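[audit] Reproducing an earlier prediction to check determinism. Same input, same settings, fresh worker. If the tokens differ from the archived copy the diff job will pick it up downstream; this log only records the rerun itself.
[audit] input (469 residues):
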Amino acid sequence: MREYSPTEKPLSSWKEIASYLGCDERTCLRWEKKFGLPVHRAGGSQSKSLVFAYKDELDEWLKRRREGEPADPSPKAPARSQSSRRLPFLLGLLPAVVLMILGARVLFIKSAGVDASQPYDFKVERSMLIVTNKKGAELWSFDTGVGDLIDEAAYRQHFGYRKKGSDERIIMPWLKIEDINGDGRAETLFNVKTTNDVAPTDLICFDSRGSKLWVYSPGREMTFGDKHYSPDYALDAVDVLDMGPTVPKKIFVMMRQKPNWPSYIATLSPQGQVLGEYWNAGRFSDYGLIDIDNDGAPALVLVGTNNEYRKGFLAVLDPDSVWGSSPQDGDYKSPDLKPGSELFYLLFPRTEVDRLEFSQREAMSTVDMLKNNRLMVVALLSRIIYELNQRMEVDMVIISDGFREKYRKYQAEGGIFPGKLDEEAYAEALAKAVVYFDGERWTTTPTRNKKNLGIYLQKEPKHPGMPVT
């Protein structure tokens, strides 16, 4: 009978046992109960007692399982009693050593960023979402029941964060794996996308073990002017707004009506409660959480198109005060919505190029913060670039190579009068043609929405963005 020696170091936790066997902890518990996995407990048979296991016993158990021996709820240990091995182990398990080992393991895990039970990556197989750890081992799975779920390649492209595609358009995230509620465990935000864009879509939040925490279903029936729009909405983006270490994170979602133009963004709490909505009469193209004035409080910056004015827009909102609608009139104004909470709302001028490219409307496609604390906004069709300072004044208009190429092309086709373009004068004219909503009317004078100057010192409306009562 061989007794325990210091060279035969046991596995001293469920995590170590699971790591040695290449599975998760829940699987180990199931194997112990159903197949007699040889695991010992220092404090008796209680499930919460200190557990340990010996590698040679695990190897022998695995060997028997591979050879097809029937499951035996009592492990076939070698010819030595468990008590004879447990006693030397417990005698050698001095409190100081235990503390040192546990402390070292915690430090190692934190420094290496490795936790086999933490969600890290994913797979999509047919209708199934499969969440894995950093080593690629499956942690849990969820069957959406959707026969035409978008494939893994598409989800992979839209995984994690916003990015620019090869055509300079923004690729928005559909799937996030991140600790959103500050409990130290990663949640999974999954946008159920189908190949049929008209099909209903949901945003589902799962905890680290795969339990469904909540579901957000976008859209509702809305009225603009005298027209009614169905509650069919596609969810185009899901992201997490990190406002700083002392402020709870917010979930950001972006939706569009199918197939019409009403669009809106919403902010949600980590528990899935709707905090606010902001509606726009046209599609959103990009967004950013940007500290535009270096005061430590980031703003939510949105760009896209405004269908009423057929121009590209930029809006700036406080993430804690999101409600209402973009400034609209007539058929584009909703009787169900309050005036919007935007700090700024700008419209950018049209050009000969974008009118010939697509006569209906222009859009601003991207917004980014430059190292000189300027916002850079790029027009989708004309490729004109605007740089704005902290007061949203136009500091510079850049005539890009893309604009020059298109300008020369339409000159050759006869759509634009021949002759050399005076780029300096053209850029100056575009800068002067940017208009701002001051809360009542449009003006070429750079200004905030004056009706919202003091709005952030007040308490948020009880139902921001919801129908007026």
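[audit] rerun output stored. Observation attached for the diff report: The chain is about 20% helix and 30% strand.
[audit] end
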